[in-house]
Amino acid sequence: MPSLIKSISLKNFKGFSEEVRIDLCPITLLFGANSAGKSTILQSLQLIREVLERGSPDVDSTLQGGKAVDLGGFRNFIHRHETDRVIEIGFGIELGDESLPELSGDAIEDLSLADAEVWHFHETLNSIRACVLTLEVKLSMSWSDLRNEAVVSAYKLSFNNIWCADISTGADGRQPRLRINANHPIFLANDIEGETLFLELADWVLPGQGAEGFRTELGLTADDNGGDKAPEIPPSVLLAVLEVVRAASADSPNPGFAAWLHRFKGAIPELDRQILIPANSPESAKDIFVLQAFSGFMSWMLVGPLRLLREQLEKSRYLGPLRCIPPRGFEASLSRNDAAWSDGMAAWETLLSSPQEMLERCSHWMQRADRLNSGYGLVRTEVQEIDYNTRTPLGRAKPRIALVDQAGLTHQALDVGVGISQVLPVVVAAQDDRASIVSIEQPELHVHPAVQVGLGDLFIDGAIERGLSFLLETHSEHLILRLLRRIREAAEEGDTEHINPDLLGVYYLANEDGRITATRLPVNAEGDFDTPWPKGFFEERGPELF
C-alpha cells in the first residue's frame, strides 16, 4: 500500500539541533559518514509511533526496533542531553484518495425529519472536510521539571500547507489550550458577518473580559504584514459553526477551548475516543444532533490526523543493520511481533505462511541471473512428526523453508554464507505489499557488489509494482549507480512514466562541528546529479586507484 507520508522533519532529536526536512520519494537514500544521523531519521518514525500508541515520549526500546534500537529515554536522545530544549518531529501527509478518519458515524443520517438549518450545518462541516488535500502533523516533546518526566507539550496541525490548529500545554504538560486559525482558506466564505459573530462569541467564551483573548484563540493577533494592528475579523465559516453550537446549548469552551479538551495526555487527545462537547441540557433533538455532528467534526480535525499517522506508522517496517540466521527447525511464532522484522526473522516467518506466488517471486529475485543472482533459490517443504512406536502422525505437518543451489541441492540457512541471511529479509520486505514505508539499515550488508547493484532493481520493482516506499540508510556506491543507470536508460528509451528522477531522493548527511545537515542531491533525466558530490563522498577511490 503506497505510503501517505511524504516528508519527515526533526529538530533537537539526537544529533539534529536545527530542523532538517527529508522529502520522501518512492526510493529515498541516506548517505554519509558514520554518526552523521542517518539512523536517527529512521528512528524518528519509531519514536512517534511509541508516542501515539503508548502516550509517553520517554522511550528506550520500541515496538519495531527490537534489540537493534535502544533510544535510552528522553534525557538520552534530546540533543546534547540538554533538557531545556524541545524536540520537534513532523510528518507531511498527502491524502490522495484517502480521507481523514472519522471516529463515529454522522448522527444526521438518523434524523429523517431534520430541518433546513441542521442540514445546512451538516453540509457546512462536510464542505470543510472536503477541502483538505494535504496535512502536516508536528509534535513537540519537552522535559517537565514540575513532573520530572517527558511530556508532549505541543501539537501543531497544518492543512494544505497552512497552519490550521495547535494545542499547547502548561509547564507541567497539563491544561491543554487550543488555537484555531479562523483565517484558514478552508473556513472562509463570502456571506459571513465576521465582526458581529466574533463579538457575540467572544462574550460567550470570555464573558466580561473583552475580545482580545478570543482573537488569540482564533489566530488573529497581528496583521498580515506583521504589524501590531490586529487584523479585521475574517468572514470565517468557523465563526458561523461556533454560533450554531452555542445556540445548541453547548457549554462555554472557556479560554483556550479548555473545557472541551477532556482526556488529553499532554497535547495529544485520546486517539480511540471522540472529543465530546459538554452541553447544559440541550432543549431539542436538533440541538443533540448539532452537538454530535460538531463533536465528530472536532474529532475529525484534531484526532483524525494523529490516527491516520499512527495507522501509517503501524504499517511501516524496519530492518536493522544485522539480520539473524534462523536456526534449524525454525517455526513461525503464533503471535504478531513487529520487532521480528528488525532482525530479519519476520521475513522467514512470512515465507513460511505466504501464498506460493509470493514465495516464487522472492525465489526468482534471489536466484535469477538477471536479478540478484545470489546462487540460491527458495523452496517450502513440510515436515511431519511421527510417533516412533505407532507410526502415527503427531499433529499437523509443519512448513520449512530451505535454500536451493544451482545443482538442486537444498540447504539450511546456517549452512550457507552469511550474506544470504542478510539479503533475504530485504528481498521479502521489498516484495510484501502489506507495508507502507520500508526502512532498512545497510541493505547491502555482507553481499557481493554484483548483488548490491541488483538491489537497485529490487527496490525499483518494489516501488512500482508493490507501491512501497523505501527509506534506505546505505554506504553502497553500487546501489546508487544501478538506480542512476535505470533512470538514464528509461530516458534514452523514452519510457519515463514510472522510472524517472521523481522516483529517487538522495540525501547526503554530514556532521560538522556538532551540527547535522542534510543536502539533497537532485537527479536529472540523464541519470546524473545536478550538483557535485559533497566533499569526500565516494571520492576515496580516486587516491586508491591513482
Key descriptive features of the protein:
18 strands; elongated; seven-stranded antiparallel beta sheet
Please provide a written account of the structure.
This protein has 546 residues and is an alpha+beta fold. The chain has a domain at 102-135 and 173-302. 31% of the residues lie in helices and 19% in strands. The chain contains 14 helices and 18 strands. It has helices at 38-54, 74-77, 116-130, 194-205, 212-217, 237-247, 285-302, 304-314, 345-353, 356-367, 418-431, 449-465, 477-493, 541-545, and strands at 5-11, 20-23, 27-32, 87-94, 134-144, 149-159, 162-168, 177-180, 264-265, 268-269, 317-319, 377-383, 398-404, 410-411, 437-441, 469-473, 504-512, 515-520. It has a seven-stranded antiparallel sheet with strand order 2-1-4-5-6-7-8, covered by helices on one side. Strand 17 (504-512) and strand 18 (515-520) form a beta hairpin. Helix 3 (116-130) packs parallel to helix 7. The longest helix has 18 residues, at 285-302. The protein is elongated, with a radius of gyration of 27 Å. The model has no long low-confidence stretch (mean pLDDT 90).
